[in-house]
Design a protein that fits this description.
mainly alpha; 8 helices; Triger factor/SurA peptide-binding fold; two-stranded antiparallel ribbon; single chain
Length: about 240
Amino acid sequence: MKRFCAALFALGLPLFAAAHARAEGGALLVERAIARFWAPDTGGVASPHFIYERVLAFEARIEALADPNRPSSSEPYRDRHVNDALERHVAETLLAGLHIDPEPGEAALLRQIQSARARLLERVGGEVALEQAAQAEGIGARDLLEMLRRQARASLYLDRMVAPMLDPSDAELRALHRTRHNPFRELPFERIEPGLRRWYVGQRLAAAVQSFYQNARSRITLTPRAELPGGVELER
């Protein structure tokens, strides 16, 4: 817990207030696992992972906020956002559990947590949008840090064990800037280099995570335990 608090302080993460739902009869519903999954890569059936309802709902909101055709405020996410969030969650969890050689130190991990948070803020449209999504699903600062830590370890595994993707060269970025396939093409390179770098790294990581999931899909056992957010049916 002390390590979490230290990282929260270093990152300046806001302490989101957690909203609690009450089940029938007035009992306090603290948490509910809606799916369990495991894969041989990370210990098999003896080491299952669980996906919790409010976490997946929050991650579906993130996918919706990052969607150019985002839903209205009355419809925070759609079926495809839940499915995308589920696949990303499973893939990142498995990647984060794989061995990295050499194992990254805390300083390297903290840097990647900071980078993951910066990319997340750009995806959702800023701090306010992130805080609103977190409050809507009862996500606290510790929950957010756990998600960022998972993403950080997954990105380090992909970068060190699959292909370098976290530190593109200036030549790569300048070549990308000259193409029409980036949101910064109308602005001077020197002005947008940090944003272009985050965007490019985020695009490469997302593609690598999706590729990993598709390749590992036949090895993943995913079992529903409850209805997914929005009534989405779990694809087996």
